[in-house]
Amino acid sequence: MNRERVAGLIRELLIELGEDPEREGLQRTPERAAKAWEYLSSGYSRNIDEVINGAVFESEANNMIIVRDIEVYSLCEHHMLPFYGKVHIGYIARDKVLGVSKLARIADVFARRLQIQERLTRQIAREIMDSTNAEGVGVVMEAKHLCMMMRGVEKQNSVMTTSSVLGSFHNDEATRLEFLQLISKKLD
């Protein structure tokens, strides 16, 4: 991303909004906002293989592996407003497992792009399936969308839930139900 060009565009936007980009509070806003946009859209410049960084390990595990409540922050591609929430990821390994932090990192790579929640959920599931050759993968995401909260219908308490199930999570009802039950449990 050309940060200087983006800062210039943000300066133009401030003027179009009726602001004075030279007033004290806004003098460095174009540069700060450009830097923020670079971070918020960093998923475009990340290489998923570099993110995983070889952290796919041989394992005899063939049980369900779940990480719940991974925070995600993304930007709605329709209004460029944030949506945020939690993603729950589960998979059944065949002979390979991912380093546990890589699940969160995979979610972040795809979340740091202009997105719709439905696609984001599917991209996470597909990458885990492809990276591990898992028997099955399940991903459930719950998120609040500022495009629904701050504008439009202005519904403050709405939560969108999406799921993507692949392999045995799709084909076997018992596997899918086990996953859904485990992610809904609050363990002490």
TrEMBL record:
Residue numbers binding Zn(2+): 76, 79, 147
Top-rank taxon, per record: Bacteria
Catalytic reactions on record: GTP + H2O = 7,8-dihydroneopterin 3'-triphosphate + formate + H(+)
GO cellular component: cytoplasm
The protein's enzyme class: hydrolase
Keyword Nucleotide-binding assigned: yes
Keywords: GTP-binding, Hydrolase, Metal-binding, Nucleotide-binding, One-carbon metabolism, Zinc
Oligomer status and interactors: Homopolymer.
Name the record gives this protein: GTP cyclohydrolase 1
